[in-house]
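name: query_chain
kind: protein
chains: 1
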Amino acid sequence: MGTKVGDEVLSTDHDTLLPLQASLGYRLMQDMAGRKKLLLVEKAADVIYLDWFSARLKERGRRGLDPAWSLVPCGDLIRLATLVGLLAKDSASFAVLLTLAERHPDVIGRRELSRMLRSTQSFPLRQYAEPVESTVEDLIGPTAYPALVDLACQLPRSVRLARTLEAAAETPILGRVVEAMNDNQASPIGFDPMIPAEFLLRSGSKKLRKLPGIEEALTRFETLFGDLNACL
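structure:
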């Protein structure tokens, strides 16, 4: 039917609001980019982990994430592509924390996204952790993250992941934890990745000593923060 113009200023119709939402989102991104440098991450839990590990490092007089960074969770690859496209004209104003490798089929299959990522400051997490398709949870580590989930979900000793989860260096730890928790009768509603992140946020530095491998995790995050800060 083409474009329609009406006088319903406060309309809640989806077709009416969609271009307004897109325009508002674009303006917000421009405003954010104008104040700080954006770091695009995949999920909200990533923001919590990056902030938490940065705070613990700074408490020890080590290198944390520079406050000039503004963390923006953007969701799946489609949303990432949208945000990268919106900001592409000012590629110096943002960086991307990549879970997927640049040669992953989902990235290669979207040629425009692949091209834009090559022209931006992207930080594949596989550079800082072992699996090829690492997530931020892999920076926490294959020993510390399951122990964190055990604490956050209050799992009975007999089914704690720190004791029962098998090692698999080539598989991201988050995927293995999700699979184990979904099969676990002690967790009948499945697993929400935000639960351990929120638990860590509430705990502050109190639970550091209960997480095996946490020193190695701090070092991995410190290396990432150093690379990110260097491009400011």
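note: The beta strands are 37-41, 69-73, 94-98, 121-124.
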